[in-house]
């Protein structure tokens, strides 16, 4: 799991570095276009994802103590919060599409750095959403298996690994949120 997490951090790190280079080389334009992101949606999603990480950590603690029902409930809560994040992101994407903020021929903010910013926005948040969807499925399956007593429940490496993956998703959002939503608003 640690090798997988390291490879994911390298992948996202490359995206973050590329974004930072363009942000530095086109600072005024990138800051101006960053103000077009919806700060309310981004902030709500940050709160949802952070609470889901707390629920996951509590599920891990419950698992360590052998509290099967509590762990299953907290895992279900974690998955539900992940779904809430995706729902909010869906509303945000719909608004962005209505405002023609998808780079291409109908892009509302012109060419150059504006399209570059929004290209990074769609790529990074889309890849994050894919990772979150995988995490939701894994957490929901694990919760179902715990609830159904499908395997002996004791402190397990599986629950710890699942927690690491979920926290990676949160850490990525902790970086994406200020990069995409707070830039240009100071």
TrEMBL record:
Positions of transmembrane segments: 39-59, 71-91, 120-144, 156-180
GO annotation, biological process: aerobic electron transport chain
PROSITE patterns in the cross-refs: COX3 (PS50253)
Keyword rRNA-binding (UniProt): no
Record carries keyword Transferase: no
UniProt-recorded Gene Ontology molecular function terms: cytochrome-c oxidase activity
Domain Heme-copper oxidase subunit III family profile: 1-185
Signal sequence region: none
Intracellular or extracellular location(s): Cell membrane; Membrane
Topology class, membrane: Multi-pass membrane protein
Pfam family, one: COX3
Primary location class: membrane
Keyword terms: Membrane, Transmembrane, Transmembrane helix
Protein's name in the database: Cytochrome c oxidase subunit 3 family protein
Gene source species: Plantimonas leprariae
